[in-house]
Amino acid sequence: MDGNGRWARERGLPRREGHRAGAESVREVVEACKEIGIKFLTLYAFSSENWSRPPDEIKALMELLERFLRKKTPEMHKQGVRLHAIGRLEALPDTCRSELDLAIAKTSSNTDLDLVLALSYGGREEIVDAVRQIASKAASADLDPEGIGNDTISEHLYTSGIPDPDLLLRTSGECRLSNFLLWQISYAEIVITNKFWPDFRKADLHEAIAEYARRHRRFGAI
Ligand code: IPE
Ligand code: MG
Q1: Whole-angstrom distance, CA of residue 106 vs CA of residue 100
Q2: What is the pLDDT of residues 115-127, one digit of tens each?
Q3: What pLDDT does residue 157 have?
Q4: First and final C-alpha spacing in the chain
Q5: Ligand 1 centroid – CA 5 distance (Å)
Q6: What residues have their beta carbon closer than 5 A to ion ligand 2?
Q7: Distance 50 CA to ligand 2 centre (A)
Q8: What are the residues facing 218 on neighbouring strands?
């Protein structure tokens, strides 16, 4: 979800206004996914690297997240959304974490759309955490190193139990992965749109999915 800052700058507004407008895009895109019948949506809301932003901006983002969860959870619950969070969540402020825990608990038995928030998330960190778990199981002989396969890695990632994405969508025209789901997107179709995230609404999601539908996925076969 990139381009909030540039969206605000274009309008002569503070960056936090861009983040605020971006939260409305989240609401619309979640609703559109429900309507289309998409079962899993992962939103890259805050990366490991985003901790290097100025403290003011981090504070604004965390407050926005907390407010979003408090205000929107009842609506998401009604829509049948089940919330998950991936990342080094222990780094989030306590107030954010407790709001997150509440939202996850409240929506845990929903089945219509699994919404995964990537928070304090980095793909490399995720792989490091998985390797640590696997190594410690191997060291205590709970796991045979010879038996380690792709599934072993997948099962130890934060996304264990969540299927790999079919479509990776990035806004604001940037053509890079920025440490997002590095393992999981090995065969995802990538769609990049020039729109800034706060301008990305339902019609844009429909367009991205139409683009996805035109692709021929061969997974290395012919
Ligand atoms: C994405 O917008 C939001 C977060 C990273 C939380 P940016 O804040 O990266 O916006 P730009 O890239 O400065 O336009
Ligand atoms: Mg950015």
Answers
A1: 10
A2: 999 999 999 999 9
A3: 99
A4: 33
A5: 5
A6: 2
A7: 9
A8: none
Question: pLDDT (tens digit, 9 = 90+) per residue, 164-196?
Answer: 999 999 999 999 999 999 999 999 999 999 999
CATH number of this structure's domain 4-213? 3.40.1180.10
60-68: Cβ within 8 A, 24+ apart: 60/15, 60/16, 60/19, 61/16, 61/19, 62/92, 62/93, 62/96, 64/16, 64/19, 64/20, 64/23, 65/96, 65/99, 65/100, 65/119, 66/93, 66/95, 66/96, 66/99, 68/23, 68/26
Query: Binning pLDDT at 50, 70 and 90, where does residue 219 land?
Result: very high
What is the phi/psi pair of residue 42, to 5°?
Answer: -115, 125
Q: Which residues contact residue 74 at a Cβ distance below 8 angstroms, ignoring those fewer than 6 apart? A: none
Whole-number Å distance, alpha carbon 125 to ligand 1 midpoint, is: 20
Ligand 1 site residues (CB inside 6 A) read 1-6, 46, 50, 61, 172, 197
Which pLDDT does position 139 carry in this prediction? 98
In this structure, which ligand is nearest to the CA of 1? Answer: 1
In the chain, where do the E strands start and end? 40-47, 81-86, 113-121, 167-170, 189-192
| Whether the Cβ atoms of residue 182 and residue 152 lie closer than 8 Å to each other | no
The residue ranges of every structural domain in the chain are: 4-213
Closest C-alpha to ligand 1, atom 9:
2
Q: What's the CA gap between 83 and 73, in Å, rounded?
A: 9
